[in-house]
Amino acid sequence: MLRALYVDFNSYFASVEQQLTLALRGKPIGVLPVMTETTCCIAASYEAKAFGIKTGTSVREARQRCPDIIFVPSRPAHYIEMHHRLIAAVESCLHVAQVCSIDEMWCELRGRDQERTQALALAQQIKHAIRQQVGEHLGCSIGIAPNRFLAKTATDMQKPNGLVVIEMGDLPNCLHRLALRDLSGIGPAMEKRLIACGIDSVQALCQASKEQLRHAWRGIEGERMHGKLRGEFVPERDSSRSSVGHSHVLPPELRHRDAAYAVLHRLMQKAAMRLRSYHCVAGHLTVSVKFVGEQRWQRDMPIDSSADTRTLLKALELLWQTFPQGRKQIPLLVGLTLTDLRDASTRTASLFESHDQQDALNAVVDSLNLRFGKNALYFGGAHLARDQAPLRIAFTHVPDQTLEA
Which helix (H) or strand (E) covers residue 281, if one does? Predict the structure, then answer.
């Protein structure tokens, strides 16, 4: 029984750029976070991938591999707008059960749609709707399978513009040619753990018992993987938000200590506003600086659970005081992450400061910035970086443009 149809848009950022700009079509392009020679590609077109260029390839290496490559700056607002148009196109054919990321979504198949012929017809209908309603240069690979995990796996079996069906009768043999890292949920650390348990291939993974996988995963997730590999329709576990964070590659003119702090100030103001929109407070802060040459400085500290911008900025200032004054390395990237999140309604009232006053001030600042733009009102520590840290898109987070611009 086929119960899941998964849509994966191929080389999404690069494909959007090619859709929007005629001159880029059919050309090797790399999408950069900032237009500088010391950064790396966050996306590459299939024409660039043919030269071995991929996400994470440095500009220098990309030029060596493909002298004709064209670099373009990332334009997140366009990717988000196109994302919503693509959802609408898929919805015109089949209800989207869940948007998994900026470039992935899945649909649950029901009734007659679970039959192979009808499922294939729906997949072709979706591809046609995307071409007609959004653009012919936004290709997608579609996987159809008994569960979401296998449908996602199927999308990677044929790219670009693939269409792969996995039926119960195909299991597990159709998976044996894959590498362990080809399966969703198996990263470098999990692969090492599996190999340590004597599971060094997908074939061995499929043959392992439920108990062996529970041991390898150190918990119930191993049993869930056992079921997924066998085509069982395993409901996804509820996931709560665990962190809020931002990072930014510094342009060459801001690669010094004071500017790095100003950008962190700007990032913290964005993160605090996001926290409040989620009705959360944070209890831990981590700040990091990556230098040219791969070295990194990082510090963290617990904080009183808060989403108040001033409170969080004070924590940032305390951590920044430990940054070595005489450090000669050139800062390249700065970032911060707020963790230990909990519902704002659970926070303990302070004996020394009124949350009501904090909340009122934050509400005014948020309201003005949402209405008039991100620089309508901001704390002065970010002045040097007020035009930095634009909208960014993480792998599983589609930003709200009105909130995160």
Answer: strand 280-291
Burial group, residue 285, by CB count within 10 angstroms (0-12, 13-18, 19+): buried
Please give the CATH architecture assigned to the domain spanning 4-8+85-229. 2-Layer Sandwich (3.30)
Q: Name the DSSP class of 143.
A: E
Q: Collapse the DSSP code of 255 into the 3-class scheme (helix H, G, I; strand E, B; otherwise coil) and give the result.
A: coil
pLDDT tens figures, 261-287: 999 998 998 899 888 888 899 999 999
Decide: 25 and 127 in contact? Cβ < 8 Å: no
Asked if 271 and 312 count as a contact pair (C-beta separation under 8 A), the reply is: yes
DSSP class of residue 385 equals G
* Distance in angstroms (rounded) separating the CA atoms of residues 155 and 21: 26
* 315 vs 295: CA distance, rounded Å: 24
Question: Does 12-77 carry CATH code 3.40.50.620?
Answer: no
Per-domain boundaries in the chain: 4-8+85-229, 12-77, 243-404
For residues 11 and 160, what is the distance between their CA atoms, to the nearest angstrom?
Answer: 9
pLDDT tens, position by position, 367-394: 766 666 666 566 767 666 666 655 455 5
